[in-house]
Amino acid sequence: MGRLVAVGLLGIALALLGERLLALRNRLKASREVESVDLPHCHLIKGIEAGSEDIDILPNGLAFFSVGLKFPGLHSFAPDKPGGILMMDLKEEKPRARELRISRGFDLASFNPHGISTFIDNDDTVYLFVVNHPEFKNTVEIFKFEEAENSLLHLKTVKHELLPSVNDITAVGPAHFYATNDHYFSDPFLKYLETYLNLHWANVVYYSPNEVKVVYLCC
């Protein structure tokens, strides 16, 4: 009798695991065929051949790109090269991407930029907020954009327990932002488990120097 119960429980567990695997494949569209589409008015921009994770555009036409994101389980086109921030003037007839120099003291070797956002202060100072995953951890880096020198001055690194798995960010002040956590956990294995079990534990967090709080819970 005990063996039958054990076999029955094992069968239920395997069925549940199989159902979760099929559901994951459907969500990821793993069986979908990708068709090539010809875009005649598009052309390759040198410097971002491998694509960009995020883009933010200033009113004057300057665009910032985060490039070089590395993430466990995802293919990297430049595994030995750290990430960076590129800038492009979209008002130019033939815009080209330029990599912005970052001030000394910032750890460029582990720079792994994800979502980005800009904020323009009352004195026209431009701040660039960058979600960073150094060694697959989670920080938000705040920079001041120095247009005359095509450079970024690093001002602050933000770490907080309510920012365990930051994906994107929206700046609303010189040191204030909203950020999305795409997972509840920061550990890679637990993240995979969240995804596999289809747990909707993402949230939105508001950060300021005086207050940090969850403002939205997913589902």
Automatic annotation (TrEMBL):
The keyword Thylakoid does not apply. InterPro entries: 6-blade_b-propeller_TolB-like, Arylesterase, Paraoxonase2, Serum_paraoxonase/arylesterase. Keywords: Calcium, Disulfide bond, Glycoprotein, Hydrolase, Membrane, Metal-binding, Signal. It is an enzyme of class 3 (hydrolase). It is a peripheral membrane protein. Homotrimer. It catalyses: a phenyl acetate + H2O = a phenol + acetate + H(+); an N-acyl-L-homoserine lactone + H2O = an N-acyl-L-homoserine + H(+). It comes from Pan troglodytes (Chimpanzee). The keyword Kinase does not apply. It is found in: Membrane. The active site is at 114 (proton acceptor). SUPFAM superfamilies: Calcium-dependent phosphotriesterase. Its main location: membrane. Ca(2+) 1 binds at residues 53, 116, 167-168. PANTHER family: PARAOXONASE, SERUM PARAOXONASE_ARYLESTERASE 2. GO terms for molecular function: acyl-L-homoserine-lactone lactonohydrolase activity; arylesterase activity; metal ion binding. GO terms for cellular component: extracellular region; membrane. Its EC number is 3.1.1.2. Ca(2+) 2 binds at residue 54. Binds 2 calcium ions per subunit. Transmembrane segments: none annotated. Its cofactor is Ca(2+). This is Paraoxonase. Belongs to the paraoxonase family.
